[in-house]
C-alpha cells in the first residue's frame, strides 16, 4: 500500500561498541504484527497490537551495523513498509559535544530559536538530530556549529541532540551530546 511506517533510532546517532539503542517502528494499524528486517533479511516479529514496536540493540557490536526497515503484516499481507534506517556502530574517539539552545528550552510560538553544538575539536562537523526522525535534521559544517529555527511552532517541539565527527583519515565519532527538550508555548 501507499502507507508508510515511521522508523527511528532512540537515542539517535552512531552507537558505540557495547552501547545500546532501540529501533522504534510506528504505524496506525489495528490487527497486524511488526516485522524487522536487516539488510533485506527478516530478523524478528513483534506481536505488538497498537501503533508501535520497539526492537532493542544492547551490547552493540559491528554485527549490528546495517540497514534496517519494518513491515507491518496482517495474515501474510504486507500492509505498510518503513523507509530504510542506517545503523552504525563505531568507537567514540572525539570529546562529547555540548548542545545549547537560545533563548532557552521554553519559547513562545513564532520565536526564533538557535541550536548550537559545541565541540573541542577544530575540524569536526556535527549532525543535529530530532528524536523520532530517521533522517539527520541538519548537518553543521565545522565553520558553522549553529542551526536556526525561524518562527517555531508546535511541530518543532521535541528532544534534540547532536553528534560530531571528523573525516581526517577515517571517520572518527563523538558520543551523543546531552539531549534538550524544546517546548513551544
Contiguous runs where pLDDT drops below 50 for at least 5 residues? none
Mean pLDDT across all amino acids? 91
Distance between the termini: 37 Å
User: CATH homologous superfamily of the largest domain, by name?
Assistant: Immunoglobulins
Structure in words:
The protein has strands at residues 4-10, 21-26, 33-38, 41-46, 52-57, 66-74, 77-82, 85-87, 92-94, 98-102, 106-107, 113-118, 125-130, 138-140, 146-149, 158-166, 172-174, 180-184. It folds into two domains: 6-87, Immunoglobulin-like; 98-184, Immunoglobulins (Immunoglobulin-like), CATH 2.60.40. The N and C termini lie far apart (37 Å). By secondary structure, it is an all-beta fold.
Short description:
The protein is mainly beta and 185 residues long. The chain folds into two domains: 6-87, Sandwich (Immunoglobulin-like), CATH 2.60.40.10; 98-184, Sandwich (Immunoglobulin-like), CATH 2.60.40. It has strands at residues 4-10, 21-26, 33-38, 41-46, 52-57, 66-74, 77-82, 85-87, 92-94, 98-102, 106-107, 113-118, 125-130, 138-140, 146-149, 158-166, 172-174, 180-184.
Draw up the topology in text.
Blueprint: E1 4-10, E2 21-26, E3 33-38, E4 41-46, E5 52-57, E6 66-74, E7 77-82, E8 85-87, E9 92-94, E10 98-102, E11 106-107, E12 113-118, E13 125-130, E14 138-140, E15 146-149, E16 158-166, E17 172-174, E18 180-184
Parallel strand pairs: 1-7, 9-17, 11-18
Antiparallel strand pairs: 1-2, 2-5, 3-4, 3-6, 6-7, 6-8, 10-12, 12-15, 13-14, 13-16, 16-17, 16-18
Question: What characteristics describe this protein?
Answer:
single chain; 185 residues; mainly beta; Immunoglobulin-like; 2 domains; 7-stranded mixed β-sheet; 0% helix
Amino acid at each position: 500500500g501507499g502507507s508508510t511506517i515511521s522508523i527511528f533510532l532512540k537515542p539517535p546517532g552512531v552507537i558505540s561498541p557495547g552501547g545500546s539503542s532501540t529501533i522504534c517502528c510506528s504505524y496506525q494499524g489495528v490487527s497486524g504484527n511488526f516485522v524487522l528486517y536487516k539488510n533485506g533479511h527478516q530478523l524478528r516479529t513483534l506481536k505488538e497490537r497498537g501503533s508501535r514496536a520497539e526492537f532493542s540493540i544492547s551490547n552493540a557490536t559491528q554485527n549490528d551495523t546495517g540497514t534496517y526497515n519494518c513491515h507491518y503484516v496482517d495474515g501474510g499481507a504486507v500492509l505498510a513498509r518503513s523507509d530504510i534506517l542506517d545503523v552504525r556502530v563505531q568507537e567514540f574517539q572525539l570529546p562529547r559535544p555540548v548542545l545549547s539552545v537560545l533563548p532557552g528550552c521554553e519559547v513562545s510560538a513564532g520565536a526564533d530559536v538557535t541550536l548550537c553544538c559545541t565541540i573541542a575539536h577544530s575540524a569536526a562537523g556535527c549532525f543535529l538530530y530530532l528524536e523520532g526522525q530517521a533522517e539527520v535534521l541538519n548537518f553543521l559544517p565545522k565553520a558553522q556549529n549553529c542551526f536556526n529555527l525561524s518562527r517555531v511552532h508546535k511541530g518543532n517541539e521535541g528532544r534534540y541532540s547532536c553528534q560530531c565527527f571528523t573525516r581526517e583519515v577515517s571517520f572518527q565519532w563523538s558520543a551523543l551530546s546531552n539531549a534538550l527538550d524544546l517546548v513551544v508555548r
